[in-house]
Amino acid sequence: MDTAEKLVQMLIAVALFGGVMGFILLVVGRVRGRTDLVQSLAFVAPAVLLLAVGLLYPAARTAYQSFFDRTTEAFVGLDNYSALFERDDLLIVLRNTLLWVLVAPVTATLIGLVYAVLVDRSRFEAFAKALIFLPMAISLVGASVIWRFMYEYRPDQQNIEQIGLINQFLVWLGFEPQQFMLNAPLNTFLLIAILIWVQAGFAMTVLSAAIKGIPQDIVEAGRIDGLYGVKLFRYVTVPSIRPALIVVLTTISIATLKVFDIVRTMTGGQFETSIVANEFYTQSLVRGNYGLGAALAMVLFVMVVPIVIYNVRQLRKADIR
Amino acid sequence: MNAVTTTPQAHGGPESTAVVSSAARARKRLSSPGASTAAIIIAVLWTLPTFGLLLSSFRPEDDIKGNGWWNWFTDPELTFESYREVLFGSQTELSTYVVNSIAITVPSVVIPVTLALLAAYAFAWMRFPFRDSLFVAMFALQIVPIQIALVPLLQIFVDVGLNGTFWPLWIAHSTFALPLAIYLLHNFMRDVPAELVEAARVDGAGHVKIFGTIMLPLIMPAIAAFCVFQFLWVWNDLLVALTFAGSTSDVAPLTARIAELVGTRGTEWHLLSAGAFVSMVIPVIVFLGLQRFFVRGLLAGSVKG
Question: Which stretches are annotated as coiled coil (chain B) (predicted)?
C-alpha cells in the first residue's frame, strides 16, 4: 500500500462508520414510540456489541485457555499456574513485578508531591510544571530510547569515549563504566526509573490541583498552631490531600502492573528483567505457548482487580463535592 | 466525579494566585535556598535525558558515535542528515510509518468517542430495561487488562481474514477505549441540568435531536479531553500494535518500528535519536496545544492503565 491508499482507506473507514451511524440515528429519530426502547437500542447496541465481541468473549476465552497446554489442545488443569511458582525464570518474573509495583508508584508519587509543593505559586510555576509534565506526552518506546542513551555503555579502552551520560559521570569520578542493562538486579531498578520519570508528571499535576484546593482557613489554623515548613507539610498538607494521594498511588500501580513497552524495548525481558506483562507477550506471541501466556494474563488480571476497585472507591470519595 | 476539575485554577499559571493570598507563604518557601535547589535538581534530572538525545539527533553521525553529546558545546556542528536518513533512507523509511500511525490513530479516536457518546447518552437520559445493570457491567469492564483479550481477538481477526489490514487495530483500539469513555462521558452528561432536557422534550424534540443540539455542544470540553487522551494512547501504544500489526508490516505504526530498530540496530544512535523524535513530534504538538483539555481529563480520572 502506498501513502495515498492508506489515507484513503482511513477516510473510507471514518466515512463508512459515520454513514452507518448517521443512518441509524436518522431512522430512529423518526421512530416515535411511547417508550425509549427502540431508540435506546440504537444508542447502546453498537457499543455493547463491540464490547461483547472484542473484550468479553476474548477475556472468557483466555480464562478457559489458561487451563490448557501450549497449543490449547490438551487440558492440563492448574499446571500453567503452578509453573509460575515453580519455574525459576517465572519466579524471577513474579519477583520483578513485585519490585516494580512496590518501587515505582511510591517514588513517582513522592517526587511529584515534593515538586508540586516546591513550585507551588512560585514565579515559574507553569514553566517548571511543563518540564516535568512533558514526558507524559511521549510514548514509553520514546522514553526508553531516551534512557537507553543515558545508560549506554562503551568498553573502557583507550580512544573510546563514553556516549552515555551516566557512564561518563562514573568515568569522570574515576570509576569503571558499567554495562547497566546486564547487571541484575540493578537493571530492573534502572528500568523502573524510566517509568518513574514518565509518571511523576501525572502525580504532580493531580497533587498540585489537590494542594490548591486546600481551604485557606485550614492552612491558617495550622499556622496559628505554630506549624511551618516541613511540619505544615506533614500535618496539614499531606492529610488534606490524602484521597488524591491514594488515587495517584493506585492509578500508577495499575499502570505499573500493565507496563510492557519499557521492558520490551530496553531488554526484551532478558537478563532477568522480565515482568508479568512482558512475559505474557513473550510466551503468547513470541514463543507460541498459549496456555502459559493465558495464565500470565489471568495473573495480571487478578493482581489488577483489587487495586482498581480500591482506586475507583477512592476516586469517588475524593470527588465528593 | 469531576469536582477536582471544577476547582478554579486547577492548573498552575500566574492566574492561580487568585486562590486567596497564601502566596506569601509559598514565596517564602521557595526563597529558601534548599527548596529552590531541590526543585532545580528535579527539573534538570527530568529535562537532561531528553535534551541529550535531542541534541544528539542533530549531530553528525560520526560525532554521535564517537563521543558524548556534551562535547557539542566545544565542537558545535549541526545537521539534519540523521532526520533525512531516518525518514527517507531505504533501511528505515520512517515516513511510511508516520503515515501508518496517522491512518491508525484517526479512526481509533473517532469511532470509540462516537460510540461512547451515544451509549453514554442512553445510560444518562433514556429509560430501557436492564439499564442500570448494563451500565454497571460496562463500568466493571474497566478492570479487564487488555492483555487478557489480545490473543483470542487476534484469532478472530485471522479467522475472518482481516489480519494485515488496519481493521484489527481500529477495532481493537475502539473496543478497549469504550468502558472508560462511556463512563466518563456519562458522568459529564449526567451533569447537564435536567430542565434543559425536559424543556426540549416538551417542545417535541426527540432523543436524537436533544443529543445533537443540546448534549454535544454542552459537553464539548469533555469530548475534547477524551479525544486528546485517546489520541495519545493510540499514537503511543506498542502492545496492541505489535499484536495486530507486527513491527515491519504494511500497517505497523511508528512505535512498533522504533522498538524494532532498537532491537536490530541498537547502536545506530543517529537513526535511533532522530527516529525517536520523529515519533514524538506530533503527540507533543497535540499535547502542548490542547494541554488545558488534557489536564481537565486527567483530573476527571481519565487515566487508562
Answer: none
**Per the CB < 8 Å rule, is A39 touching B56?**
no
Measure the CA–CA gap between A236 and A239, rounded to whole angstroms. 6
Q: What average pLDDT is seen over chain A?
A: 89
Distance CA B86, CA B95 (A): 8
CA dist A207 and A240 (Å) reads 11
- Sign of the C-alpha dihedral computed for residues A264, A265, A271 and A275 taken in this order: negative
What size, in residues, is chain A? Answer: 321
Q: Mutate one of B74, B115, B142, B228 to test the A interface: name it (highest A CB count within 10 A).
A: B115
Interatomic CA distance for residues B149 and B253, integer angstroms: 20
Rounded Cα–Cα distance for residues A70 and A303 (Å): 23
| Beta pairing partners, A75 | A68
Residues B78 and B163 in one domain: no
Residue B191 burial by Cβ neighbours in a 10 Å radius (0-12, 13-18, 19+): middle
The single-letter code of the amino acid at B31 is S
Q: Specify whether B61 is located in the same domain as B128.
A: no
Task: Provide the 10 A C-beta neighbour count for residue B156.
Answer: 17
Residues B148 and B65 in one domain: no
CB A10 within 8 A of CB B107: yes
pLDDT of residue A33: 66
pLDDT confidence of residue B152: 94
| Contact residues, chain A, for B287 at CB < 8 Å | 134, 136-137
- Topology of A79-318 in CATH? MetI-like fold (1.10.3720)
Provide the residue range defining the domain that includes B255.
94-299
- Can you tell me the distance from the alpha carbon of B247 to that of B253, in angstroms, rounded to the nearest whole number? 8
Residue range B271-292: average pLDDT?
90
Give the chain B residue whose CA is nearest to the CA of A241.
B4
Question: Which residues contact residue B13 at a Cβ distance below 8 angstroms, ignoring those fewer than 6 apart?
Answer: A125, A126
For A185-228, write each residue's pLDDT tens digit.
899 999 999 999 999 999 998 899 888 888 888 888 888 888 87
- Residues of A within 8 A of B298 (CB-CB) are 202, 205-206
Q: Do B238 and A141 touch (CB under 8 A)?
A: yes
Kindly give, in sequence order, each residue whose CB lies less than 8 Å from that of residue A120, ignoring residues fewer than 6 positions away.
A208, A211, A212, B26, B29
User: Average pLDDT of A150-179?
Assistant: 89
Chain B residue numbers touching A320 (CB-CB < 8 A): 3
Place of cell 494542594: A211
CATH of the domain at B152: 1.10.3720.10
Closest to A84 in 3D by CA, of A254, A251, A304, A293:
A293
Report ipTM (2 d.p.).
0.89
Structural domain tally of chain B? Answer: 2
Q: Nearest CA to CA, how far is A86 from chain B (Å)? A: 23
Residue of chain A whose Cα is closest to the Cα of B228? A137
Task: Classify residue B178: in a domain, yes or no.
Answer: yes
A&B contacts, CB < 8 Å: 387
> Is B231 contained in some domain?
yes
